[in-house]
């Protein structure tokens, strides 16, 4: 599959703000912070036109309350990924309610992911829910701020993404693996830099 890849679009910020407002309303029963992360959060960086959202929970015990709070909206809960990443709950925001798009609202541990859910034109955002005090929260926020303030690193990342997006990928996870070495190197640098700010 060829992944969609677009020049930076200022509309991404507006899309995030709309989703943030909805998520904050839905998550009112728990203490949560909603942040824009990933390439769409860095001005001038080309990206897949999917908003990456990080929800930070003040209380780790609230992780399993989130699926019920988002139920009935335009979100698909990928419980399937909980075993590999027990500290995270992952959701995809769709253009409409899952049942109207002919996809399940919940992908269980033993479920196959329907081929239709790999259609990126149906997706608006990827939502990662994690404890706010975790190292995973820190690395995402630090890396975003590092890219925003280090133009040379942002340009290097841009070049890598442009090269990778030309290749044929089975799915988005394979594309992400192509960025893995770069991300590990610069996330580590970003966390050290962030601590020193």
From TrEMBL:
Coiled-coil ranges from the UniProt annotation: none
Source taxon at top rank: Bacteria
Matches recorded under Pfam families: GrpB (PF04229)
Name of this protein: GrpB family protein
């Amino acid at each position: 599959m060829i992944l969609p890849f677009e020049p930076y679009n200022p509309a991404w910020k507006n899309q995030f703000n709309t989703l943030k407002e909805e998520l904050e309303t839905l998550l009112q029963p728990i203490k949560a912070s909603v942040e824009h992360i990933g390439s769409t959060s860095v001005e001038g960086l080309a990206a897949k036109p999917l908003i990456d959202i990080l929800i930070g929970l003040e209380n780790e015990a609230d992780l399993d309350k989130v699926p019920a709070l988002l139920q009935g909206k335009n979100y698909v809960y990928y419980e399937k990924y909980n075993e590999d990443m027990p500290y995270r709950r992952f959701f995809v925001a769709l253009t409409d309610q899952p049942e109207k798009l002919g996809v399940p609202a919940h992908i269980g541990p033993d479920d196959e992911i329907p081929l239709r859910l790999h259609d990126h034109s149906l997706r608006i955002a990827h939502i990662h829910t994690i404890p706010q005090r975790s190292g995973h929260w820190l690395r995402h926020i630090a890396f975003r701020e590092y890219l925003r303030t280090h133009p040379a690193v942002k340009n290097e990342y841009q070049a890598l993404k442009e090269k990778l997006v030309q290749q044929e990928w089975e799915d988005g996870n394979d594309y992400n693996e192509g960025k893995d070495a770069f991300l590990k190197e610069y996330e580590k640098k970003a966390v050290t830099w962030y601590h020193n700010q």
